[in-house]
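Hi R.,

Here's the chain you asked about this morning:
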Amino acid sequence: MSQEISLKKEEYESILKQAVEQIRTTRIIVAKQLNSATQSIYWNLGKLIAEKQLAEGYGSAVVNQLSVDLKKEFPDMGLSPRNLWDMKRFYERYYLADLKLRQAVAVLPWGHNLLLINKVQSLEAVLFYANEAIAKGWSRDWLLNAIKMDSFSHHQTQIKSHNFNETLSAIDADYANEVFKDRYNLGFLGIIEKVKETELEKRLVEKIKNFVLELGKGFTFIGNQHRLEYNNKEYFVDMLFFHRGLRSLIAVELKIGSFKAEYVGKMNLYLSLLDKLEKGETENNSIGIILCADKDHLDVEIALQDINKPIGVAEYQLLLPKDQLQDLLVNEIKAYNN
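And the predicted structure, written out as tokens:
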């Protein structure tokens, strides 16, 4: 006879959350192992074709026959002649490359690697896109979007707009510099028309998983319109996170238009309240991020000049402008047809 087990709702939800995290973590590990094993096969096949000095033209008959015979043995592995030539390109491109790069591409899905081979020339850029795809779980479409927007170049030229070096310890400032970016891509929201800040916040909350992935590793979402009460007054933080590595509360304020100096004063107040009311004894000071559609670095620099709370200002990109998006699609169609 079974015995009914009674748990409080909070206790059950905690168990369920841990179980879901266990499954998700294991799935990610298994997926990486499968990708790595697949890339290893493709790498070795590409190496075999390269070392036998088979080239398109006089080697086509050999590769075509190899494809036919391999597909008889392994019908579900995608061993078409075109794929075999791609494996050769995969090997030839990376066999002399840095170990970090070879390790990064080894755990990517094959479709991601084909994109990087066909669309990205610089090995330095390949490493950037591969690491971003791994860290943020990018799909093939997300990777293509990042390449088309030339995220690597933006990453190379971006100027950090923050006061972390003045308000954090040297170690924490270095870490915060690595954690926070100068520009965030919010293209997953599908917004191409002007929206209100409340609508932007609503959409981000609805797709919070994607937003956390875009922020990077270590972020945990606490809530939106997070209420703070002090001296009989109420204040609301647009979005509140906790970063495990920095051990800090992270307040995010969303602004539809360009950066204004007044946003810094408001964020400074929120951080003071968070530190006073909610920061744990073992936690570091709270950090603020102001997300704007546009910012001028000099305006940000002067606004942060005498602020003693760590605050960063970053831009976001919702989607390519309509005319650029149309041109991109037309060019992709032409390239495909050719």
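The chain has two domains: 9-149, 158-322.

Let me know if you need anything else.
M.
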